[in-house]
Amino acid sequence: MKKFALTMAIIAIFAAFVCTAAACRRGDELLLYVPDGAPALSVAKIINDGCIGDTTTRKQSVVSVVTTGEEVTAKCGNGEADLAVLPTNAAVKICSVRDDYALFSVNVYGVLYIVGTQQLTDLKDLQGKRLYSIGEGNTPEYVFEKICDQNKVSYEKYDEKETLYGKVMLKYFKDASEIIPQIIQGNADFALLGEPAATQLIGKLLEKNKPAYNLFNLQTLWQQATDSDAAGYPQASLIVKKSLLSDGDFRARLDASLSANSEFLNANATKIKDVLCNAGSALQINFTNEIFERCNLIYTDAYAAKADIEKYLAEFDAMRQYLPLKDDIFGRLAAEE
């Protein structure tokens, strides 16, 4: 009987702990998941503050986790994230499949650049060259291929043993951390990377006394290829639990924090590396205002950007099933439900 009583007591204590943690999680603590790099920069003020806006009337902390895009998607897939920055295609898919998230804003309008150890003046000069790239099956691949198609530049994915004369030889890697050492070692001369990794590669090449060139801004090339009014494309967006958006005070505080993010970055460039690293970032780079500018961190209401998002997603074969976008996936409308 004593053993049974002890066992039951332990179970009760454990259950109480779980319930207490769950209550704290639901009431006082929000979880924000963001991929490393520009997406994390787009919400740096929230990461730094540990809260959203002025919380003097309501204590509500935010725990921010800077991690991989795959983990962010998984945390949204199981509903654990309260807020998350994702590639816009992934954000739209989650908001279309799940009814508890809404697309609140577009936060990043393109961060892709081609960097090389040789000077080139025309995209066609990449034909016959090896280009190591991030983002297979995602934004970098679709944006690059659209630009190449419009400029009549031939490209093909290749095996290291192959040489594809007259074509851009594309090889995809999981992330920039795999590409940067390859370029420094001379295994390829060109890389398609996002910021701030592109600047990081240039810095490392210069440290090794190797030539480094920032060759092509894919945001500008995209504008030309798609005949868009402005450079860039809605690459990364913020999704938020609809239950949070039903609170007008929360929406106002979130809007205020995101609106003030660029000013916060520019005023605190020297501390941003530590801010992100404390949340899990692996980036070892000293940020500058120039890097922030190249990240195209533009906070825009998602519903106001609906037409741009639809035009962008139409380039993704797998995303056309979600077009046209339904109004009920947008945060501004979700707040009115």
Structure commentary:
The chain has about 325 residues and is of the alpha/beta class. The protein has two domains: about 1-110 and about 235-335, D-Maltodextrin-Binding Protein, domain 2 (3-Layer(aba) Sandwich), CATH 3.40.190.10; about 110-225, Periplasmic binding protein-like II (D-Maltodextrin-Binding Protein, domain 2). The chain has 16 helices and twelve strands. Strands 2-1-3-11-4-12 form a six-stranded mixed beta sheet. A six-stranded mixed beta sheet has the order 7-8-6-9-5-10, with helices on both faces. Helix 6 packs across helix 9.
| Number of structural domains | 2
Terminus-to-terminus distance: 54 Å
CA radius of gyration is 22 Å
Order of helices and strands: HEHHEHEHEEEHEEHEHEHEHHHHHEHH
Going by helix content, strand content and strand pairing, the class is alpha/beta
Please identify, by name, the CATH architecture of the largest domain: 3-Layer(aba) Sandwich
Give start-end ranges of low-pLDDT stretches.
Answer: 1-26
Question: Quick one: CATH superfamily of the largest domain?
Answer: Periplasmic binding protein-like II
Strand content: 15-25%
Number of strands: 12
If you average the pLDDT, what whole number results?
A: 88
What level of helicity do the residues show?
A: 40-55%
Key phrases:
337 residues, 18% strand, 16 helices, single chain, D-Maltodextrin-Binding Protein, domain 2, 2 domains, six-stranded mixed sheet, 12 strands, alpha/beta
Summarize the structure.
The protein is an alpha/beta fold and 337 residues long. The protein has helices spanning 2-27, 38-41, 44-49, 69-77, 88-97, 139-150, 176-184, 197-207, 218-226, 242-245, 248-259, 261-267, 272-277, 289-294, 306-313, 331-334, and strands at 29-35, 61-67, 83-87, 101-108, 112-116, 130-133, 155-157, 168-172, 190-194, 213-217, 236-241, 300-301.
